[in-house]
Amino acid sequence: MPLKDKVILITGGTSGIGEACTELFVRHGAKVVTMSIQREAGEALAKRLSDEGGTCLFHFGDTSQEVDVAAAVELAVERFGRLDCVHANAGILRNQKITDITLDDFHALINVNLLGPVLVAKHAIPVMERQGRGVICFTTSVAADIGFPGHGVYCASKAAVVALMRSLTTDHSPHGVRFVAVSPGTIDTPMLAASCAGWDTPQEELYAQVAKKIPVQRMGRPQDVAHVVAFLFTDEAGFINGSVVHLEGGTLCLPPW
């Protein structure tokens, strides 16, 4: 169990990919602090995993608020003495063309999807550099590589996370911190389900249509991402640095016709 006793902080850790990561890491023996704005879900998740014999703390907080991020890092260090890994996973989605977007929606996307990872890195890196080691994984998206219709700012925010990750690698990896990113494609999460609202086609039909277009003939599951992040956090992945791992079932290989 390569994650046993590793101290891991996850943002956006109570739904979708984050929830799957929280569950997998705890069941692999990690000591997890999972953070989100979903208080009820977070408290229930932490209790369930703790009742199963794992170590999981829930921290209620907003990743776009520096005081909340700093408190989450401090909680991990105070309770467990160090911080081995961070998964900067919190994110939101807005479906709007640039001509329709409001400044409030723009700031919401950038504050969660980009400022959040920046704040996580700002507060986690000094801890890891003092330790001489650590890993930070960012959740980006194939939206960083594909021009999704009606998602201009979302795509831009995810591309920015990739650029951030690569810059941090040059600045801080010489001091012992590794940086990686996972880039999911179409993953069956509550956020994806919410994006189906307002369509005339039922969600089940939409999902079936999407699955047929993916070369592996299925949509991704949150657990698909969690298993990859778990590996990236292990010492066996120690030479993977400044890299983006795509998890999209072959979507990026499709021709444009």
Cα shape: globular
Largest sheet entry: 7 strands, parallel
Rg, rounded, reads 18 Å
Unreliable residue stretches? none
Strand order of the largest sheet: 3-2-1-4-5-6-7
Number of helices: 8
Short description:
By secondary structure, the chain is of the alpha/beta class.
Give a structural overview.
The protein is an alpha/beta fold. Helix content is 46%, strand content 16%. The chain has eight helices and seven strands, in the order E-H-E-H-E-H-E-H-E-H-E-H-H-H-E. Helix 1 packs across helix 8. The protein starts with 6 loop residues before the first strand and ends in a 10-residue tail after the last strand.
How would you summarize the topology of this molecule?
Blueprint: E1 7-11, H1 16-27, E2 31-36, H2 39-51, E3 55-60, H3 66-80, E4 85-88, H4 103-131, E5 134-139, H5 152-172, E6 177-184, H6 190-195, H7 203-213, H8 222-232, E7 243-247
Parallel strand pairs: 1-2, 1-4, 2-3, 4-5, 5-6, 6-7
What are the main properties of this structure?
257 residues; alpha/beta; 8 helices; globular
